Amino acid sequence: MLQPGTSLVEAARFLGVDQSTLYTALRTGQIPTTRRNGCTVITQGALMDYQARMRHIL
């Protein structure tokens, strides 16, 4: 499980993708983000939803 404040490197590792794939998914809105105290935050739920969608596509 990921902890709040997980780095993008850890998020990419969790998803099993490289960082550029994660950045593309973030930039295109495939993984929603929020801002908290000036930092971009990705919830674990958002990562798990993205992971489930990618498994369904493959």
The number of E-state strands comes to 2
Question: What portion of residues is helical?
Answer: 40-55%
- Shape, principal axes of CA atoms: globular
**Strand share of the residues?**
5-15%
- Please, how many domains? 1
- The averaged pLDDT comes out at 88
Largest sheet, spatial ordering of strands: 1-2
The main β sheet shows up as:
2 strands, antiparallel
How far is the N terminus from the C terminus?
23 Å
- Low-confidence region ranges: none
Radius of gyration: 11 Å
Order of helices and strands: HHEEH
Number of helices: 3
Helix/strand/pairing class, anyone? mainly alpha
Organism: Anabaena sphaerica FACHB-251
Protein name: Helix-turn-helix domain-containing protein
InterPro entries: HTH_17
Domain Helix-turn-helix: 10-54
Q: Explain this structure to me?
A:
This protein has 58 residues and is mainly α. It has one domain (8-57). The protein is built from three helices and two strands, in the order ααββα. Strands 1-2 form a two-stranded antiparallel ribbon. Strand 1 (34-36) and strand 2 (39-41) form a beta hairpin. It is globular and about 35 Å long. The model has no long low-confidence stretch (mean pLDDT 88).
Summarize the structure.
By secondary structure, this protein is mainly alpha-helical. It has one domain (8-57). It is built from 3 helices and 2 strands; from the N terminus they run ααββα.
Main features:
about 60 residues, mainly alpha, globular
Question: How are the elements arranged and paired?
Answer:
Elements: H1 8-15, H2 19-27, E1 34-36, E2 39-41, H3 44-57
Antiparallel strand pairs: 1-2
